[in-house]
Automatic annotation (TrEMBL):
Belongs to the TRAFAC class TrmE-Era-EngA-EngB-Septin-like GTPase superfamily. Septin GTPase family. Its main location: cytoplasm. It is found in: Cytoplasm, Cytoskeleton. Keywords: Cell cycle, Cell division, Cytoplasm, Cytoskeleton, GTP-binding, Nucleotide-binding. One of its GO terms (cellular component) is cytoskeleton. This is SEP12 protein. CDD domains: CDC_Septin (cd01850).
């Protein structure tokens, strides 16, 4: 029953449509098994050594009314006298008639890692009877730093490392009223959250009881949600499930109820940073007393690089696109 006709045994594959062939050619991203140690992980050590040699920059802005402890909080964050008032102790503090931005830069070092820290204070914000448009100088300053970086970036012969003066994080101090957010607070965060990473905190939280603190925090969260204000860390920029889970826990705690202190006291044989009152000592680094450790972890220990990345990839990028579109218009 077999056929006596010769079989077609040519090695040419059957004709495949172009679309199907294109699909079969693309290689799948499969990991390759190594036969021995190559040393790819040494890239991390190279990056660490290079960063320790060159250092890095971090620029932070503090905004709030006078008397809310902004300078003390910055000194507590970095455990050094880096605030504007600490650097000019002899000058008399007067409330300016308009918002004046004052920046001071320090180089701080820890375990061989150098950081060029720039702290920008905003004296005069919210201290006047008429606070209309008091956020304009702050917006202007932030955009000027973006403009300065953009001008350096579009030069034909540009520097290998462009000086970065862009504001990476803005800590906004909410007065501990225990009620709702003021229209000034809402309008500031609504405008500034579009161009910079805003982290709201409840200043001098030791003036509130634990029940008042929890209720005030819940009201602030409701206000932010009602007015569609997206503070840092923003939900839209979570890259993977692990980041989303971590940031969800942080968003539940925002705004942080913080207490600042730059004086040490003796507690159970240990020297701790705290505020001494008639009834005891409020330890600023004790999570049972306040949420300052959460703020420090967010700004420095866990999200410092993320603050810089979002500033560069989101806020600065939107400013750059807008400016280049304006320049290309006839």
């Amino acid at each position: 029953g077999s056929s006596l006709e010769p079989e077609d045994r040519s090695m040419e594959p059957p004709a495949v449509p172009e679309e199907e062939a294109a699909l079969t050619v693309a290689p799948s991203p499969v990991g390759c098994q190594l036969f021995g140690y190559v040393g790819i992980e040494a890239v991390l050590d190279q990056m660490k050594i290079k960063t320790m040699k060159t250092g890095f920059e971090f620029n932070i802005m503090v905004v709030g009314q006078s008397g809310l402890g902004k300078s003390t909080m910055v000194n507590t964050l970095f455990k050094s006298k880096v605030s504007r008032k600490s650097s000019q102790p002899g000058q008399e503090e007067r409330i300016p008639k308009t918002v004046q931005l004052q920046s001071i830069t320090h180089v701080i070092e820890e375990k061989g890692v150098k950081m060029k820290l720039t702290v920008t204070d905003t004296p005069g914000f919210g201290d006047q009877i008429n606070n209309e448009n008091c956020w304009d100088p702050i917006i202007k300053y932030i955009n000027e730093q973006y403009e300065r970086y953009l001008r350096e970036e579009i030069l034909i012969t540009r520097k290998r490392k462009i000086p970065d003066t862009r504001v990476h994080g803005c800590v906004y101090f909410v007065p501990p009223t225990g009620h709702w957010l003021r229209p000034l607070d809402l309008e500031f965060m609504r405008r500034l959250s579009k161009i910079v990473n805003v982290v709201p905190v409840i200043a001098k939280a030791d003036t509130l009881t634990l029940e008042e603190r929890a209720e005030f925090k819940q009201r602030i969260q409701e206000d932010l949600k009602t007015h569609a204000i997206s503070v840092y860390p923003q939900e839209d920029f979570d890259q993977d499930p692990e980041d989303r889970a971590l940031n969800d826990r942080i968003r539940e705690k925002i705004p942080f109820a913080v207490v600042g202190a730059d004086q040490e006291h003796q507690v159970n044989g240990k020297r701790v940073l705290g505020r001494k009152t008639k009834w005891g000592i409020i330890e600023v680094e004790n999570p049972a007393h306040c949420e300052f450790p959460l703020l420090r972890d967010l700004l420095i220990r866990s999200h410092l690089q993320d603050l810089k990345d979002i500033t560069h990839n989101v806020h600065y990028e939107s400013y750059r696109v807008r400016r280049l579109n304006e320049s290309n218009r006839p």
